[in-house]
Description:
By secondary structure, this protein is α+β, with helices and mostly antiparallel strands. The protein has nine helices and nine strands. It has a four-stranded mixed β-sheet, covered by helices on one side.
Amino acid sequence: MPTFRPLHLILAAIALAAIALPLIVTHLVPHVAVEIGEPIILSQRAVVPQAAPPPVEPVEYAEIAPEDARAINAAVPFVKGPVPPARPFRFVGGTEEFARATDCLAAAAYYEAGDDAVGERAVVQVVLNRLRHPAFPKTVCGVVFQGAERITGCQFTFTCDGALRRTPSPAAWTRARDIAAKALRGSVYKPVGWATHYHTDWVVPYWSSSLDKIAEVNTHLFFRWTGWWGTGPAFNRGQQPGEATIPQLAAISEYHRGGAPLADDVQLAEAVPFFGRTPAPLAGDRDTFLTMLNPSQADTFQGMALASCGERPRCKFMGWTEPDAMAFTLPLTPEQMNAMSFSYIRDRGSNFERALWNCEEFKKRAPCMKRMTLRAAPAPQENVRGPAELEGVRRKADAIEPPPGNAAGVE
């Protein structure tokens, strides 16, 4: 049996003290609560703050001339760092719901971007990004027509500015629907990332200064919310069932004809192409643009013309606010020239550039277009000439010469 010497006893006592002392100290020291402040970022991953989603602001623009707006927008730098693409979207619902969602999405694409496949894909991506964000409705049609019942509250201006009075051509509508359907089945337009907002570069919305500028597609600038709410993890909400029937789409979509009758102010004109904010040039003349214009957006007409013409040395941009008066081919008739609401002509070789207004329609605008005097053919006199001679007189009287200068009948 081993014996313990005094030295052994001392060493054993020290060992026991080393084990017991931390336990005693831990038990006696009071607990201190630690407050959690700002999110702590570790390896670029943020602890999610417990806060409500940012508010969705109405679309309001600063009263700035298009050229000044472009300068302001160009001075805002793009956000630094990567722009991760959105995750593929997968629609959940039956065949009829899918069809209604497709046509709501196609309408947003066409009326917001015009007949432009690239711009349409970008708009479609923004709509689907919004659907998955906590700040927005949870159906496709709900996102597109959010606030459309209020003149100043709509999120997509085509839903409340009268654009739906004009229908797209069959080919344009088919392409917009194809782009929308592919996006609902998982196609992603990567350049705009998780963008939830956009605007054309000739206007300045009040909300643009508070968001991250992340992409430019043609004349449109795309933005995401700053901080965590603009990152992929924030887009964590799912689609809800129940794609609504939208009466405003009844004229262009057979899947939206089961709702309430259309009001008089949203009846749509038949077969009148509407090219959106940036119209397409004529098929046989890439330097000429003929387009419909919204009279309530007169401040944007010159910006639209400049954006459409781009860097072309020669360009003609002509627009009408009355669908029945619009021209679709050249040359213009005298009646079409008189009905024109706005025109922009450029010829850098002659150092010529001018925007002109129909001042009978826009009384506070200048400079004004020249008006043509339309002359009726004189009635033929009986028993003076033979039938062939009289027919020749009628043709000559009907052939009104256009004014010199350009095909638009303006200075």
